[in-house]
Design a protein that fits this description.
Layout lengths: L6 E4 L12 E5 L5 E5 L7 H12 L6 E6 L5 H14 L4 E2 L1 E3 L15 H6 L7 E3 L6 E4 L2 E7 L18 E6 L2 E5 L5 H10 L2 H4 L3 E3 L10 H7 L3 E4 L3 H7 L6 H5 L5 E4 L5 E4 L17 E2 L7 H4 L2 E2 L11 E5 L3 E6 L4 E6 L1 H4 L4 E10 L5 E5 L14 E2 L7 E9 L4 E6 L2 E7 L7 E6 L1 E11 L1
Parallel strand pairs: 3-4, 4-5, 4-6, 6-7, 11-12, 12-13, 13-14
Antiparallel strand pairs: 1-2, 1-15, 2-3, 8-9, 9-10, 10-11, 16-28, 17-20, 18-19, 19-28, 20-27, 21-24, 21-28, 22-23, 22-27, 24-25, 25-26
Length: 443
């Protein structure tokens, strides 16, 4: 077999239920894979992860040489549990590796009951616990274990993120530093134990999704050219400005930021880092394909986490190529079109067609420039809906005239001033259930 280019893929996650989670697929030059974490496991995540492996597979059987779980939080191991229960046997998993804290140090861990119940079923898999200093080689990928939970075993660990497995991977022409959810304690350990050159990398997986992960000192020592940033888009914009992430703004060496919230990225590890972020959004139309019955493919995200006070929507797909969304007593914000897209055009049209399944408190749009994680209720534009009645709402925004108009069943019901800044298209709901039959963005 001829060697093939090794790849690193930052897998697209829905970020529909939670605002965290990370999943990476590494294809080796012999055709096998390494997986790091895998995600939370919401909606169609197991199926999507399988599809990523299937598309890149060149062997007779998909083979995972190693599956690493960085730490015992469900947004990192949840999908592994679901995937193994569904695809084990169809997918060969040669090694499963994790070093979790001993039982007395598991404060803050997620419920691992189902994960642990799955392990005895993995009869063809070697299960092991890496230790600091281990060098693990799979085909042309070399993983140096720099830190595990055992390295803080003699210390009080108030935040279990600090028990994350940290590894330096050499693959192709690049070194990648995998931090998992490493935060202050583990970052301090790394900086105190290793000389600067041991932490220097080309690609850095941003610790704890960029939410107070890593440290300024660690980021400076790593000095990467590219960032793998596993978080939803609505948190990326504020998080990149936080003091913990200051180096990522100030560094002149960072050429690319691969943002997990806006798409799926694959990096050829034999090629230099590109000088700019690969464009996911081109200046064209988006017709959201509801027939796929996939939250991941829709790439919609519910704004959650932090101190937002918002709740995720519940989504279900119908046989008639529709999606039903249900909101409870808290505000639910569903980010559908990202500001990266709207920034590329001077005018656009956003259309939503559907039916209200219940009378409710609120169904509407937010489209002006704003911070999704800090809701300004004055920016909500309610839309009139009634139980069991069809609706069609269209937003037409023109930056030249600095106006936006909302049409209800073809009739203009509201015109408001707008600026020429990019904006997200967000559906906001509260105490209501609606079925959407068509959602489209047209320039």
């Amino acid at each position: 077999m001829n060697d093939i280019s090794p790849l690193v893929t930052q897998v697209k996650l829905p970020y529909f239920t939670v605002d965290c989670g990370m999943s990476y697929v590494i294809r080796l030059s012999d055709g096998r894979f390494v997986i790091i974490d895998g995600g939370y496991g919401e909606y169609d995540e197991p199926e999507h992860l399988y599809s990523v492996l299937e598309k890149q597979n060149i062997l007779d059987k998909i083979t995972v040489a190693a599956w690493f779980i960085t730490h015992p939080h469900c947004d990192h191991f949840g999908n592994c549990t679901l995937f193994l229960n569904k695809y084990y046997g169809k997918v060969a998993v040669e090694n499963l590796l994790f070093t979790f804290p001993r039982e007395g140090k598991l404060k803050g861990a997620s419920d691992m009951t189902e994960f642990l119940k799955t392990l005895p079923k993995l009869t063809e898999t070697v299960i092991s616990s890496p230790k600091r200093g281990d060098v693990l080689t799979y085909s042309d990928a070399v993983f140096e274990v720099l830190f595990t939970a055992d390295d803080l075993d003699d210390k009080e660990v108030p935040n279990i993120n600090n028990t994350s497995l940290v590894m330096m991977m050499t693959l192709g022409i690049h070194k990648t530093l995998w931090l998992g959810d490493a935060q202050d304690q583990s970052s301090e350990f790394l900086c105190s134990v290793y000389p600067d050159e041991r932490l220097k990398c080309d690609i850095l997986q941003v610790g704890h999704h960029g939410y107070w992960g890593g440290s300024q000192e660690l980021h400076e020592k790593a000095d990467p050219k590219a960032l793998l940033w596993p978080c939803p888009d609505f948190w990326y914009h504020p998080a990149r400005k936080w003091a913990y992430n200051r180096f990522f703004i100030e560094s002149e060496n960072i050429k690319a930021v691969y943002r997990g919230g806006i798409g799926e990225y694959t990096i050829d590890m034999t090629l230099p880092i590109e000088d700019q972020l690969p464009a996911l959004f081109e200046n064209g139309d988006i017709h959201f394909d509801l027939s796929k019955k996939s939250i991941t493919d829709l790439a919609w995200s519910c704004v959650t986490g932090g101190q937002t006070g918002f709740a995720p929507l519940k989504a279900s797909f119908g046989d008639d190529d529709s999606v039903t969304l249900t909101a409870g007593e808290k505000y639910s914000l569903c980010q559908t079109v990202f500001k990266d897209k709207t920034a590329l055009t001077e005018s656009f049209t956003f259309t939503v067609k559907g039916r209200a399944e219940t009378d409710g408190e609120l169904f509407g749009f937010i489209f002006e420039e704003h911070t999704p994680t800090a809701l300004d209720k004055e920016r909500i534009h309610p839309l009139p809906v009634s139980k069991d009645k069809d609706f069609e709402f269209t937003l037409k925004l023109d930056k030249k005239t600095e106006k936006a108009s909302i049409y209800s069943n073809g009739e203009c019901t509201l015109t408001v001033p707008v600026t020429d800044t990019p904006c997200d298209m967000i559906i906001v709901m509260k105490n209501i259930t609606v079925t959407l039959k068509d959602v489209a963005y047209t320039v």
